[in-house]
Amino acid sequence: MQNQSRIVIENVAPQLNQGAISIKRVVDEIVNVTADVLVDGHDVLQASLLYKHESEKSWSEKRMYPSSNDGYMASFQTTKQGSYSFKIEGWVDYALNWQHGIGRKIDDYQHVNSELLEGAELLFRIIDKVNLEEKEYLLHLIFIFKNTEKYAEAVKEVISDKLTHILKNNPEKTLTQTSEEYTVYVDRKKARFSTWYEFFPRSASEQEGKHGTFKDCHRLLPRIAQMGFDTLYFPPIHPIGEINRKGKNNTTVAQDGDVGSTWGIGSKHGGHKDIHPELGSLEDFKNLVSKAKELGIEVAMDYALQAAPDHPWVKEHPDWFKWRPDGTVQYAENPPKKYQDILPIYWESKDYKNLWQECLDTFLYWIDCGINVFRVDNPHTKPYYFWGWVLAEIKRQYPDVLFLAEAFTRPKIMHQLAKQGFTQSYTYFTWRDSKHELIEYINELTQTNQREYMRPNFWPNTPDINPYHLQGAPESKYIQRYALAATLSSNIGIYGPVFEQMIDVPIVGKEEYYMSEKFQLCNYDWFKENKVTFLISRINQIRKENESYQQTNNIQFLETGNEKLMAFYKWNDDRSNETLTVLSLDAYHSQSGSIQLPLNALKIPRGHKIEVVDLITKNSYNWYHEWNYVELHATLPFHIFKINK
User: Which of 147, 214, 396, 438 is deepest in the core (most CB within 10 A)?
Assistant: First the structure.
């Protein structure tokens, strides 16, 4: 038999892949749900949003409100970590339909004695659903609806708001229609707001040329915390292969003393569950993780599924690698890059179940050591469904664990990784430099359905990427790029000492660092201070103090009349914190223009005074007009204004 319900529910949003993929939120975020709900004819329909956390047995209900063109909307708040389900329920509300019909007849001066008797029967059926006061009221209505001598009072009460309220809150649901169920995965708040700092612990020694240790890293933690970073990311800390080890500048022959690439994982000293012996012991690592936590910093580990030729896996699990007829394994390649020191995993191995389990066990081992954040290297070169399985297994046991996908690849591949469960993703921000490129990209991330599953993490540089616009750039360019990243995206990171000290010498013609730290030890003046470090610290503090910068999606770009001047308005969910950011994209010259305030979004009339306070300089300005003049110099190429109305 066909469905007898007269209700059609379609275009439910937000949802992904017809509900097969969960949308994402963090604790205390709002899920705004919309749907088209239709009924034939002119009857009154009602719709509800039903939702529950995975730990709850019963559904909570919120009545949906009509918007336009048969659209309905409602929202709920995600108060716990884990998975939520929601669905839409629709029905013809015969009681409200009756009230609407009788009201029209009364307006037409028709007698409605028969309709009042119908109403008495409707009210009797809901009498046991209401509270005591409402019950007394309904009993009185039933009496007057049946008593012709009370006709004048009856026609007044039958269209009262009080009765409408009771009928709406106590519906008789018959022949209901229910949508498919959709899911929301809720992370802890750090999934949406984090500030990352990357350095190689082997370069932490005070003595030039000496291999750094975890103990050396302790002296750097207070500085990193004072600068406002809450996540300290280490490239791989595992034993480094000795066979085919890379030399300085990625040369294929290592010289005596060359330390190799940290991503060439595995040697006679162990594999993915072991620590490079020159860094220290496992106990040293745990002590560092604990000390960082005391300072409000979480240590993020690199998770790179690949093996050096002398990794224990190669002998113990040869089926995990694809062997050629000559008895060798083809090294990893990502043209034009070649990784002679790395063997790729053979994901189509017949022994894939044991391979997958070992990959999961590796995660669990480090989680047990106190790690709750992982930066995953090149996830796009491993099967999507592997990631879907392994990330779900981890989140089921350890919901606090977060995963950053390092996948600089094609858009839909990056999207698929996010859909499979990665918490955050590196992005194309590293290369977006013009006003048009930046606005187009941010709008793509925040104004399309990508906002439901793709949490961007903006990095101005990485050990792999020395972008052309930073090569030979002045100090103002570094300031501009950090200010852009930190105000556009709530998740940001830098390859720390190289960025803050503006080390930019490239391999000629490439976006790669010359004498890259990936292949050698480096020595830094870790406590060197400059304008870049000062402004990074100040911007990070501003982000912590202003909720509008702790999210990415609430953003509106503003007209400036100048292609070298970019401005945008951001706000938190209840608009109790509103900010205006203005940035010059010219690293060499002054730029000026008029900023068009978003008066409608600010809900202020023309001519109303607003105060904007520059959170860097502490200067304040009173603006009375829609368009307001701003001039920025390369020495300080941005304003971060807090808006006071």
Answer: 214
